[in-house]
Design a protein that fits this description.
By secondary structure, the chain is an alpha+beta fold. It is built from 12 helices and 11 strands. It has 3 domains: 124 residues, D-amino Acid Aminotransferase, Chain A, domain 1 (2-Layer Sandwich), CATH 3.30.470; 138 residues, Sulfite Reductase Hemoprotein, domain 2; 118 residues, Sulfite Reductase Hemoprotein, domain 1.
Length: 427
């Protein structure tokens, strides 16, 4: 397992592995929930000096609208419903056994606009439709009867024979198109559904794949352009890339993630894979005792909520990169959503030092009202599982139901008084 300085044999486990934490020690503190201040005992005045009527609540205001932070699991958005109906990896059999014969018009909409992504396929926009009209047209009006197909080039490593095969496929099935992306993929255009099985046969015959090139899955793994040949390379990450592909890509274990999951592995001292913007990245370093290995970074990303990844401070040998990759991804379902923030350095397999800082994580929520913030914190604590050490999660969950805490009647001595009351009651 990854080495943290110093280490003991405590471990952290995935929320999917258990439903109850082990016990009590120190972990996240509940946030104070502050809503808008209101005057007590007086109705608000209107512009004419009178009193205005209280705002009328909509009859359906309490109905759940799928807000996970408020405890509502339904309705799911269309993307999550699609994934619940069937795993995206299953649509390959339908492409090979049905759609290649029925053509575009015979494709199930859930496959066409969702699950096909798990095999690197997106519909193309019909010619003549500019960007300003995409918001007002229905999906079937936007779509052409051709596909973009994305081929993974994991690690950026491409043999001459594989490149020739891509060229042949481009000429025979994609109108001589082939885009090279900044994430080490190749994208073809004008692909017909009838030709997809033949393209798969060709590219898989030279060690390439379109599996999980798109969708809420582990995407292509970025690697150093000089892996295995750089004169100043600390360690070649290629074996780790290969092992992750062999063990996990195309597996249903990780085929339904909350969103896409991006990985980078590089042993170059030049830091040539932009490791700070990946969900998980392994950067080549030299440990003073163990020699060459990898430093682990997690939590980076771009899109609508960009953030830089955080260094975990754990050294990982080459042979264990795939295990750590799977461990980190297995717990990548922390409390989250609007108004929820988690600061922590722990991960699956983390060995907690015997003199560790008792604050191993900090959970913060905020909302428009105190009641909403309390609901968010309850949901976050219910989904936050840490085993191997005692935590305060059970106590904090009980604290959220204390009438005085719910009412906001608290001060810095509140917990001390509560514990003294409980101790007195027990005697």
């Amino acid at each position: 397992m990854p080495t943290a300085q110093p280490v003991t044999a405590h471990s952290v486990r995935s929320p999917d592995d258990a439903r109850q934490p082990a016990g009590a020690d120190a972990i996240p503190a509940p946030a104070t929930a502050q809503g808008p201040a209101t005057a007590q005992g007086a109705a608000p005045a209107d512009a004419n000096g009178g009193t205005s009527r209280p705002a009328r609540r909509r009859p359906d205001a309490a109905r759940g609208q799928g807000q996970w932070a408020l405890g509502h699991r339904e309705p799911l958005n269309p993307n999550e419903r699609m994934k619940t109906d069937d795993d995206g990896l299953h649509c390959r059999a339908r492409i090979e056994n049905s759609y290649r014969y029925t053509g575009f018009d015979g494709i199930d909409p859930g496959d066409l606009r969702g699950r096909f992504r798990w095999w690197g396929l997106y519909t193309q926009r019909a010619p003549g439709i500019d960007g300003g009209r995409t918001a007002v047209l229905e999906p079937e009006e936007l779509e052409d009867k051709y596909f973009m197909m994305r081929i993974r080039i994991d690690g950026g490593q491409l043999t001459a024979g594989a490149l020739r095969t891509i060229g042949d496929v481009s000429t025979n099935y994609a109108r001589d198109t082939a885009d090279l992306t900044d994430r080490q993929n190749v994208q073809l255009h004008w692909v017909r559904i009838e030709d997809v099985p033949d393209i798969w046969q060709a590219v898989e015959g030279v060690g390439l794949s379109t599996a999980e090139a798109c969708g809420d899955v582990p995407r292509v793994i970025l690697g150093s352009p000089l892996a295995g040949v750089g004169a100043d390379e600390i360690i070649d990450g290629t074996p780790a890339v290969t092992e992750i592909l062999r063990r996990f890509i195309g597996s249903e274990e990780f085929s339904n993630l909350p969103r896409k999951f991006k990985t980078a592995i590089s042993g170059s001292p030049r830091q040539d894979v932009a490791h700070e913007i990946h969900d998980i990245a392994f950067v080549g370093v030299i440990h003073p005792e163990h020699g060459p290995g990898f430093d682990v970074w997690v939590g980076g990303g771009l899109s609508t909520n960009p953030m830089l990844g955080q260094r975990l401070g754990a050294w990982v040998p080459l042979a264990e990169v795939s295990d750590v990759w799977a461990g980190v991804i297995s717990i990548f379902h922390p409390p989250g959503g609007p108004g929820v923030r988690l600061d922590t350095h722990v991960y699956a397999g983390y060995r907690v030092p015997s003199y560790y800082d008792s604050l191993v994580a900090k959970l913060i929520v905020h909302a428009n009202t105190r009641d909403e913030a309390l609901a968010r914190m309850r949901l976050a604590l219910d989904s936050f599982i840490i085993e191997g050490i005692h935590t305060t999660i059970p106590f904090l969950r009980e604290l959220l139901d204390e009438p005085a805490f719910v009412a906001g009647d608290i001060d810095t001595k509140f917990v001390d008084r509560l514990m003294a009351e409980r101790k007195a009651g027990a005697t």
